[in-house]
Task: structure prediction
Amino acid sequence: MLPTKDEIAQRPEMVYPVGEVSALAFQRYAIAVGDLNPIYFDDAAARAAGYPGIVAPPNYLTSVLGWQPGPAEPDLLADGTEARILVPEIRGLRLMGGGHDLTYGKPIVPGAIVTARRKLVDIYERKAKFGVLLFAVSDIVYTDQHGEHLVTCRETVIAAK
Result:
């Protein structure tokens, strides 16, 4: 049986440090994804666009799990997923991404020290031709060291029973 909305609301959020944003890291990301906007590389271009200096691509943080080494292989699930980010109702099921919906806040600048807060906001099921699918929806809110909102990612994970 799935938890009620009230039970979901009672669950704690998971807070974890992402780390300090570096220009080199986000510039490498921009190159890797083919986004060569000069505001990521050139202070003058960024200032001309209304920023205080270079900024990161707005979806950069949502593509980074963290700058720490991460869990050891024995601590990962069989599919390589980090167990701590999954809600109990979908552990052990076959998973796939169901999408991300991003809401942008303040531009991400070099030197920002980022914290992420992950909170389950909904879990529901739908019948499919081959069985039941569970949809787990979480909000991941990224803030800087001043508590300012950088980006929120509403993430949906689909699990097949």
Observations:
- The mean pLDDT is 92.
- The radius of gyration is 18 Å.
- DSSP finds three helices and five strands in the chain.
